[in-house]
Design goal:
By secondary structure, the chain is an alpha+beta fold. It has helices at 96-106, 126-134, 146-165, 167-175, 179-190, 198-204, 209-220, 224-241, 247-250, 259-270, 274-278, and strands at 3-6, 20-27, 31-38, 41-48, 50-54, 59-62, 66-70, 73-80, 87-94, 119-123. It has eleven helices and ten strands. The strands form two sheets. It has a five-stranded mixed sheet, with no helix packed on it. Strands 2-9-4-7-10 form a five-stranded antiparallel sheet. The longest helix is centred in the middle third of the chain and has 20 residues, at 146-165. Residues 182-279 form the HTH araC/xylS-type domain. Keywords: DNA-binding, Transcription, Transcription regulation.
């Protein structure tokens, strides 16, 4: 039984990863126990047919009267046609980053311990039915405001479910955040524009430098030195483009010990010296 990498198999024609993504899924033959590597958290809004998902210690089955929010992970699922020999659902994927941003914006950051459960069952009502009907991959593709509109749809369903289920749904959302990864990324990304060295950031992460580099490369698919330099140089470019600052004003804050090294790195990346931008 081959492993299906979802949503990657639905993104084959797209050049970049997406933080929020809708896919209309249809089939006309039963599929029993697919092996699925789900790399993003996902709403499964089933409209026609039945779905059963098998986890390590349990399973859950839903039909069109219910929806599922599934935690990313390796699952087995069974999809069965209805009496009209069709299966149709809308899949709504969202990244951990978008979830973290949402929780920071609308909920408290500290929650009591919540046992990690891989799914949350949603009882469909008229509002959710209307929301599902408003989702279509065709609506959110290659349009000027598609990404912004899709993010609003994400916030809409999240806020409605928070209102509908209260703390139980809020706690579930917090349980979806990978605690170790989230803490690691928060430390790294909060120090992008600091002048801390890799050793110092590794210390803040409670890691040796070698462990930090290995963990970083696994998370970001790029060595930390290059990743941080690119981020900091991009920030430097943005600061200089305002016209209010000179290279000598910012090189220390961007993590460089002297102006010469900063100027060389800047020119190597952008093909122009920082003084040419600030003038």
């Amino acid at each position: 039984m081959p492993i299906e990498n979802i949503p990657e198999i639905y993104l084959q024609n797209k050049k970049t990863e997406q933080d929020i993504f809708v896919y209309d899924f249809k089939m006309t033959s039963d599929v029993v126990k697919s092996k699925v590597n789900l790399s993003m958290n996902m709403f499964s809004f089933l409209q026609v047919g039945k779905k059963q998902v098998h986890f390590a210690g349990t399973s859950v089955a839903v039909n069109k009267d219910q929806s599922l929010l599934l935690k990313k992970g390796n699952w087995l699922w069974t999809e069965l046609l209805d009496i009209e020999a069709i299966y149709y659902c809308k899949l709504f994927f969202f990244s951990e980053k978008k979830l973290t941003d949402f929780l920071s914006k609308y909920t408290n950051s500290v929650k009591p311990f919540q046992e990690e459960v891989p799914y949350f069952i949603i009882e469909n009502d008229n509002y959710i039915a209307a929301f599902i009907n408003s989702l279509s991959s065709n609506t959110f593709t290659n349009q000027s405001y598609s990404d912004a509109l899709l993010f609003l749809k994400f916030e809409e369903i999240m806020l409605y479910l928070l209102n509908k289920y209260g703390s139980s749904f809020e706690y579930y959302l917090h349980s979806l955040i990978s605690k170790e990864i989230s803490l690691f990324k928060n430390i790294v990304e909060s120090n992008i524009n600091s002048n801390l060295k890799l050793e110092e950031i590794a210390f803040l992460c409670n890691m040796s430098l070698s462990t930090f580099k290995r963990h970083f490369t696994n998370e970001y698919n790029e060595p930390p030195g290059k990743w941080l330099q690119d981020k900091r140089l991009q920030k430097a470019k943005e600061l200089l483009q305002t016209g209010n600052l000179k290279p000598s004003d910012i090189y220390l804050d961007i993590g460089y010990n002297n102006l010469s090294n900063f100027s060389i790195a800047f020119k190597n990346k952008f093909g122009i010296s920082p003084t040419d931008i600030s003038n």
